[in-house]
Amino acid sequence: MQRRHLVLILVILLGGSSGYAFSTNVPVYSYKLINAYPHDRTAYTQGLAFENGFIYEGTGLYGKSSLRKADLKTGKVLQRHAHPIRYFGEGITVLNDKIFQVTWRSRVAFVYDRDSFRLLNKFSYDGQGWGITHNGSSLIMSDGTATLRFLDPQTFREISRIEVTDGDRPVTGLNELEYVRGEVYANVWKTDHIVRITADTGRVVGWIDLHGLLDAKHRDQPVDVLNGIAYDPEQDRLFVTGKLWPKLFEIKLVPKK
Prior knowledge:
8-stranded mixed beta sheet, globular
């Protein structure tokens, strides 16, 4: 019997605490490594997007937060906008030639012109900003809880929200987000797991286990957690990276057996 059809107990440790355990009988995926590209290891990756052949990235930390455009194959940063020291940058997404970036505790979202990085607008919101993506019409934002909020990209007004559950259990720690063919992929903070979420209901439909993706030879300097998901819908390519990681990986999902 395949493991993905068994009831699997996953124990996730969050923030060094005792953590929580949840059970699931949805598919669990591993990965096949397709390509590994250079990535700026000083980038504290909070958001990732792929658009027109380029990688767009939002980075965090006070005094080091930025918005970037990078060459996929070389990792070279081609364009960069630094945030004032009071902002801790978080997730980004690209919609209609605009880049949306949220901040952690400042309750401010920025909207930039995709090509020039010129600031077009600012919005305020309640709570924290962690990850952001879109489904083509609405923005979707996480705040570190099990809640995903759907927002009007013109006003940042909340349209609706869903609670993410695996069976009857909420999945908290939702961080960086990416919309992939009707699903929201979300990094689960401080783990090597990405959760696959049905965008209209919040129901978990799969887990991705990326344990071991960054091997020991790339850990000669300090690295942080897995965080950063980007999708190329034209070529069906999935990219992932982490905070302070020296590599950005293109992977294919493989069902665990």
